[in-house]
Amino acid sequence: MADLDVVVVGAGFAGIYAVHALRSAGLRVRAFEAGSGIGGTWFWNCYPGARCDVESKDYSYSFSPELEQEWSWSERYPAQPEVLRYLNHVADRFGLWPDIQLNTRVTAAVWDSADSVWSVTTDDGVVRTARFCVMASGCLSEYQVPAIPGLSSFRGPWYHTSRWPREGVDFTGLRVGLVGTGSTGIQVAPEIARDASQLYVFQRTANFAVPNRNATVDPEAERSLKARYREYREEARASLLGVPVPGTGRPVLAEPPQDVQRTYMDRWQRGGGMPFLGAYTDLLVDRAANDTVAEFIRDRIRETVADQSVAELLCPWAYPVGAKRLCQSDDYFAMFNSPNVTLVDVRSSPITEVTPDGLRTSSEFYALDALVFATGFDAMTGALARIDIRGVDGLALTEKWTAGPRAYLGVATAGFPNMFLVTGPGSPSVLSNMVVSIEQHVEWITACIGHVLGGGYTQVEATAEAEKAWGEHVIEVAYSTLFPMADSWYIGANIPGKPRVFAPYIGGVGPYRERCDAVASAGYEGFVLTVSLRFLSREVGG
Ligand code: NA7
Q1: Which atom of ligand 1 sits closest to the CA of residue 184?
Q2: Which helix (H) or strand (E) element contains residue 131?
Q3: Which end of the chain has fewer beta carbons closer than 10 Å to its terminal beta carbon, N or C?
Q4: CA distances from 449 to 37, 195, 370, 418, 529 (A)
Q5: Going by DSSP bridges, is the β-strand pair 127-135/198-203 parallel, antiparallel, or unpaired?
Q6: How far is the CA of 542 from the centre of ligand 1 (A)?
Q7: Would strands 536-541 and 527-533 be described as parallel, antiparallel, or unpaired?
Q8: Å from CA of 482 to ligand 1 middle
Q9: Residue nearest ligand 1's atom 5 by CA
Q10: pLDDT tens sequence across 47-66
Q11: Taking 90 as the threshold, does the pLDDT of residue 86 lie above it?
């Protein structure tokens, strides 16, 4: 008999809910978490300025109406400490701690075909067996530091935003270099600029950013939302992005230009990225339509930044709006009006080396006391690749995915029975409100495991055919949009040598949910369920 019914890898939003849902289904569950606390992304990314870019009312669990009513968010866009407090509250409230083991990294998971169990090894040297493995290891866990020559010789401290010292960093009076201007760089920069004597922002690609207009939550608005929260959650589940976004429902190119400007300005004043992307139906599929919003944002940058040569450098041209994560900040562009902030264009003059005293580009040397890397993650697959996962006949997952990740519905991959991926490649995941997608996946996986065990099966495995067909659908949908036009982490472009395969599913969380439900209703179509009595095996489904 296996030690556990289910091993859950990771205790972020996904792992926490997986423990609760699987345990509520009567299963013996244990989650292993490498961090010294729960929270995943929200545990590790404790850099100053870290804030969720999805509103707190949306970026929260919906599985418990009681939790939903009890908890009050203080801000429209919650800062990292508040999200972490929320997750710890959830673990307390549902008594999850006994089934979560902190400070323990899963290093290997090996499928044993004879006994239909996973052998899971952790870095404390213990090996446990489990009938199922649920990989809740996160889409943005494996952080990346660029291989810049000389970094080890740097005399000052350097940090990656995703491994920020928990006690904080004092930059007062220091000359600081920041590499990376994605969502993270844009959040951390104004915080560093507040204290540093000089901040050099090394920008390779200019990015679009819209205001947050962050504010404290109005108690009256909270009361009225809570009165119809259930209904609101249903709207979120059926939506494209996992957040109900009121759009005009019309294509921008058919709209009078003055109306378009009014719509954009209204959304700019109210803040938030999703309202922009959802404003018109053609913004993410037609480049000319997208140019209207791109130019609107560039105009706001030119208006905000006093030095027009700096403003032009900050204007993004390299990709359509939304094809990379649309950043959000209330003070990033205005920060460049401060005399202690310098924008350095490392597209035209690339970084060549770090020396003991600073950073050199092909045209200049910058003396620095500290360096900060906000250089992103090996997204979607990085955390899985770090674990030695071996399926049927010892096949390594990394080997199977040499040409790019493939997973049926983004939830299971052929050759790896009884292993489920939460928000895996091929699911809406990072292109949606992650909490909505996580809940949907965890509930679907819990039901699937219940079906397997209830039917007396020992194994469930995605078929190669179903996986291939789903993968083709994911790519077809992606290439009917503007998303593949960006060198983004969605397509693996940020990691040297990573195969370029568009990983998330753009079809929308509502249609995706319907598809997953249909698969389940059809007896887990596209999966093979097997009773493995060593010699006698019975196959159904498929
Ligand atoms: P991102 O979005 O991957 O951004 C990383 C940034 O780092 C981006 O500006 C990169 O420029 C830059 N970068 C990476 N390597 C280098 C080197 N070698 N030289 C110069 N600049 C470099 O990561 P984030 O942490 O900001 O955001 C990740 C997600 O977290 C975000 O999308 C939200 O979902 C939350 P590039 O664009 O590649 O030219």
Answers
A1: 26
A2: strand 127-135
A3: N
A4: 28, 52, 49, 8, 11
A5: unpaired
A6: 41
A7: antiparallel
A8: 19
A9: 375
A10: 999 999 999 999 999 999 99
A11: yes
